[in-house]
């Protein structure tokens, strides 16, 4: 056979196309489909070989052959895509008729809010419904805001009550000006410095004290500070607001008690306790005796504090309070050890 005769024979494209499509229809898996693709449309595949054979043809036949091979190639590409979709849907689990939709599914473990976060939200919502704004402040605080501006100067004995964690950095005079805030009260000052009355805010946040831990003490815990300053605010407003808060949180029947307490930044100062047994009249109906539990410190903002931020004490008065969040979360959920909140034990946290 000489080269000339060879040159005159154009390969039969229709035949190739016919068998290619037949084989394509027979593929049932993505693997066999891929083998087919390599065989026909791959870099060394049949289509490429046919295209190369153009040069063997007499020039008159080349355009027609080239055209035919191009449309054959396009058709195979298109059918390949169709077959791939067909195989994928056939093999997808939804397609299997025999699926039993009544079988139990794979359980998804939903997360939930930490009980302290939940309690903070409940308390903030109660005050927000009474028109209080919610703000936050820094946990690393200056002595200036944590103590001095709150009428607790250096060497004041009240400092002993706050076992302070100091930041180990001294200023030029050898003093340590920074600390982890021991209460949320510094935000009273930071806010009043920036804004004129009326002020009505609550400040949820973390506080720190250098204390040994036991079932009712943690070295870090949460407080919610409250502050209201305006013309004509009285102790009656303080009592009314905190009583309403107790009713929202613990129920309509709750009894509250105010007693004198001392905090340098308020005058007069008070503590509020609730009678735990009064709150659920129906379930605890046999319990007559009272069970007073202190939940917050409060008082009328000391005139020295108002003056220090430049407020006119002839015009303005105010009240402030600080709520212990863990104490309330423990009461509401019947938890007897504060350390449980921060052990990160999923068996405990999963119950909320
Ligand atoms: N900051 C006080 C504490 O941590 C609580 C408090 C706040 C008392 C506001 C009175 C007014 O003990």
Features:
disordered N terminus, 37% helix, BirA Bifunctional Protein, domain 2, binds phenylalanine, 2 domains, 19% strand, 7-stranded mixed beta sheet, 12 helices, 352 residues, alpha+beta, two-stranded antiparallel ribbon
Task: Describe this entry's structure for a reader.
By secondary structure, the chain is α+β, with helices and mostly antiparallel strands. The chain folds into 2 domains: 13-96; 115-349, BirA Bifunctional Protein, domain 2 (2-Layer Sandwich). It is built from 12 helices and 9 strands. The chain has helices spanning 3-8, 13-26, 30-41, 46-52, 62-91, 115-128, 143-146, 186-194, 235-250, 303-308, 325-333, 346-349, and strands spanning 133-134, 140-142, 178-180, 199-208, 220-231, 255-261, 266-275, 292-301, 316-324. The chain has a 7-stranded mixed beta sheet, with helices on both faces. A hairpin with a 4-residue loop joins β6 and β7 (266-275). α2 runs parallel beside α5 and α6 crosses α11. It is elongated and about 110 Å long. 26% of the residues are buried. The model is unreliable at 1-6 (pLDDT under 50). Bound molecules: phenylalanine. Phenylalanine is lined by residues 183, 185, 263, 266, 297-299, 320-322. Phenylalanine binds next to β8 and β9.
């Amino acid at each position: 056979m000489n080269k000339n005769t060879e040159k005159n024979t154009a390969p039969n494209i229709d035949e190739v196309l016919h068998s290619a499509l037949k084989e394509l229809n027979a593929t049932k898996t993505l693997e066999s489909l891929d083998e087919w693709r390599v065989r026909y449309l791959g870099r060394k595949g049949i289509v490429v070989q046919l295209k190369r054979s153009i040069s063997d043809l007499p020039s008159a036949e080349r355009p027609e052959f080239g055209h035919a091979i191009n449309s054959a190639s396009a058709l195979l590409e298109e059918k390949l895509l169709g077959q791939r979709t067909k195989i994928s849907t056939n093999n997808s689990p939804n397609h299997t008729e025999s699926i039993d939709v009544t079988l139990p599914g794979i359980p998804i473990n939903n997360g939930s809010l930490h009980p302290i976060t939940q309690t903070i939200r409940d308390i903030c919502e109660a005050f927000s419904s009474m028109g209080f704004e919610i703000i936050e402040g820094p946990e690393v605080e200056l002595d200036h805001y944590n103590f001095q501006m709150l009428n607790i100067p250096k060497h004041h004995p009240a400092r002993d009550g706050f076992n302070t964690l100091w930041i180990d950095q001294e200023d030029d005079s050898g003093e340590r000006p920074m600390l982890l805030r021991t209460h949320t009260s510094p935000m009273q000052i930071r806010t009043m410095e920036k804004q004129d009355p009326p002020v009505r805010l609550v400040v949820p946040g973390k506080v720190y004290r250098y204390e040994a831990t036991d079932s009712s003490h943690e070295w870090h815990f949460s407080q919610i500070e409250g502050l209201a300053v305006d013309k004509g605010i009285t102790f009656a407003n303080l009592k009314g607001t905190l009583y309403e808060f107790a009713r929202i949180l613990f129920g309509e029947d709750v009894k509250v008690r105010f007693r004198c307490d001392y905090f340098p930044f308020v005058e007069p100062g008070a503590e509020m306790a609730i009678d735990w047994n009064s709150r659920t009249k129906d379930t605890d109906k046999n319990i007559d005796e009272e069970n007073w539990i202190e939940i917050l410190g409060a008082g009328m903002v000391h005139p020295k504090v108002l003056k220090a931020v430049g407020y006119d004490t002839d015009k303005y008065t105010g009240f402030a309070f600080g709520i212990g969040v863990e104490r309330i979360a423990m009461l509401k959920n019947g938890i007897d050890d504060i350390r449980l909140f921060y052990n990160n034990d999923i068996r405990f946290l999963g119950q909320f």
